[in-house]
Amino acid sequence: MKRYLVLALLVLTLGVLAAVESAPSETVGYFKIGKLAPDGSIIPIEPDSWIPVSIPFGLTADGPNNILGNQFGYEDQLVDPYNDYVANCYAPEGWFCVQDDSLMMLPGHFYWVYRNPYDTNFNFYLTGKVDPQPFTLNMKGQDSGGWTPFALNEAVPIDAADLGITTLNYEDYIVDVLDNSNATYYGDDGWYSDLGEPGYLLKPTHAYYYYSNNATGFSWTYVPAGSVRNITPLTNKESIRSKR
């Protein structure tokens, strides 16, 4: 089956992850999501933009009002591509899910974030405690098209070999929706990036699709290596792309 994702260029950046110790057993930090100017400075995201993003911190099945705070304006929107849930922001009242007035932001999911043209500030921050949780997703097989959206609520890069997917098939495929990087699984040789190099790192706040060559769907449980990790600040600015 031909694999394709139509990507429209939108130059953005993920700012430095700042980490501080809030208690002996807790590490907290933030990522700034904004547009990257030619001189390297951070400027507001363009209005009327869709931005794919995942939450790189601990999640406890809470809603966007508590996770994202009051950073969004009237008629901004969130879409969860895993379950097709949609939430609209009616500031100052907050977020309301179209389906049942309650959109839970969950580990393993990423979200399309829409900023409408009437907002006054399009940058936003993702903040929280470094505490990745295990999650389980129902992955699609060839009988359902093969593509499944996913993300990791990790604050550090994770190698594809550590995802713990046991139902692996030759030429399974991971694509990063943000920067269009990708990796292919070659059996005993493992994962290879689109640069032809062994190994592939999944990045904090990025959004991914997994393409499976398995005949039918299967269940995948991701188990983080630890609840708190040593953080290396992410200082390199990177171009990312938006699918919408």
Provide structural commentary:
- With 244 residues, the chain is mainly β.
- It has a domain at 135-222.
- 2% of the residues lie in helices and 34% in strands.
- It is built from 1 helix and 19 strands.
- It has one helix at 64-67, and strands at 13-14, 18-23, 26-36, 42-43, 49-53, 77-80, 85-89, 95-97, 111-115, 124-129, 135-139, 147-150, 158-159, 173-176, 182-185, 191-193, 201-202, 208-211, 218-222.
- Strands 1, 2, 3, 4 and 10 form a 5-stranded antiparallel sheet that branches. Strands 5-9-6-7-8 form a 5-stranded antiparallel sheet, with no helix packed on it.
- The protein is globular, with a radius of gyration of 18 Å.
- The model is unreliable at 1-25 and 227-244 (pLDDT under 50).
Key traits:
244 residues, mainly beta, 5-stranded antiparallel beta sheet, 1 helix, globular, disordered N terminus, disordered C terminus
Tell me the number of strands.
19
Biggest pleated sheet: 5 strands, antiparallel
Q: Using only CA atoms, what is the Rg? A: 18 Å
Helix content estimate: under 10%
Order of helices and strands: EEEEEHEEEEEEEEEEEEEE
Strand residues, percent: 25-35%
Q: Oligomer, anyone?
A: single chain
Structural class call reads mainly beta
Distance between the termini: 23 Å
Broad shape: globular
Quick check: average pLDDT?
76
Can you tell me the residue ranges where pLDDT is under 50 for at least 5 consecutive residues? 1-25, 227-244
Number of helices: 1
